[in-house]
Write a structure and sequence with these properties.
311 residues, alpha/beta, Rossmann fold, 2 domains, six-stranded parallel beta sheet, 14 strands, 33% helix
Length: 311
């Protein structure tokens, strides 16, 4: 791989929003530090067998050979292995893979997955995202005393409770005299019963924006312009995004179903004082130093340089 030529990167996506967000965050930071030529492939558009992978028969006709291939999501793992075998490129898997780690050159694994200590594994605080800390962003966003509330729903990690979240929400809005407007966004998992009860209450200073009326840019823009952000703990990706944005971040109280890796991850953030939990509605969190997409990009480019020097 020559320093004068762009790094050809193939991104494999299963089109799930959370996985896509991780890949987009990494692409943005890689392009900030190096000249890259990014190509995106949805695995929904191409089938592959393990037989093809073993015989090195995987290719995209007309595409330049990749220097780096990246995937997020279990279903992309086979494509990473096949591309590495067919093109002899560097392979990176985001999150703990379903296949043996020895099949990949490197891995980015959140600390709540308790990864092994290895030179080719970068341990991150949560998963990557596409949010840029407001202290770094070139955009001069005026905060305007706004607050953001992000509501999830049913999950395998927490027991959802409409009434409990509504009670907490009402008290948060009522006690926030320094916030002129609250914007509330829901998710695909939010129960219809919750939205029905919320709309019936007609809470002043609260604007409801339903997920089907937003695009991919809506959430980063809201986070960048909000002084404080409240998130239900089941929405763990948005918890990490909120912290990365640099806003004062809080989570609602929900009862964990069991001590899963997600619950442990949230508890770790609380211990590090990167966020606060109900009923500590006035607590100020530690200034955010969390920007894992940036840290990953710098680390990954170092891995690629090392490989290039030793080939």
């Amino acid at each position: 791989m020559s320093a004068e030529k762009p790094i050809v990167v193939w991104f494999f996506t299963d089109d799930k929003p959370g996985h896509l967000n991780q890949l987009m965050g990494l692409e943005a930071r890689l392009s900030a530090h190096a000249k890259i030529e990014a190509r995106w492939f949805s695995i929904a558009n191409k089938r592959i067998s393990w037989f093809d992978a073993l015989l090195k028969r995987f290719s995209y006709e007309g595409e330049r050979s990749p220097d780096l291939v990246v995937g997020a999501g279990r279903r992309t793992h086979k494509y990473l292995v096949a591309t590495k075998r067919s093109y002899d490129c560097f392979s990176l898997v985001l999150m703990r893979p379903s296949l043996p780690l020895s099949l990949f050159d490197a891995a980015i694994i959140p600390e709540h997955d308790s990864p092994a200590v290895k030179d080719n594994i970068l341990v991150t605080v949560g998963v990557l995202n596409n949010v840029v800390p407001r202290s770094i962003s070139a955009e001069n966003v005026k905060l305007n005393h706004r607050g953001l509330i992000l509501i999830g729903g049913e999950s395998k990690h927490y027991t959802w409770d409409d009434e409990s979240i509504l009670q907490q929400l009402e008290l948060i809005v009522a006690s926030s005299n320094d916030v002129d407007e609250w914007v509330l966004g829901n998710s695909r998992r939010t129960p219809d019963s919750f939205l029905t009860l919320l709309k019936e209450k007609k809470i002043s200073k609260l604007k409801i924006v339903e997920h089907q009326n937003t695009d991919r840019s809506w959430l980063p823009m809201q986070m960048a312009s909000s002084e404080c952000i409240w998130v239900t703990p089941d929405s763990v990706s948005m918890v990490y995004e909120a912290i990365t944005s640099g806003a004062n971040t809080f989570i609602f109280e929900l009862k964990p179903k069991k001590e899963t890796r997600v619950v442990k991850g949230v508890q770790h953030l609380l211990k590090k004082k990167l966020l606060s939990q109900w009923p500590n509605i006035d607590m100020i969190c530690q200034p955010s130093v969390l920007w894992e997409a940036e840290r990953t990009a710098v680390w990954l480019l170092g891995q690629l340089r090392y490989k290039d020097q030793n080939d």
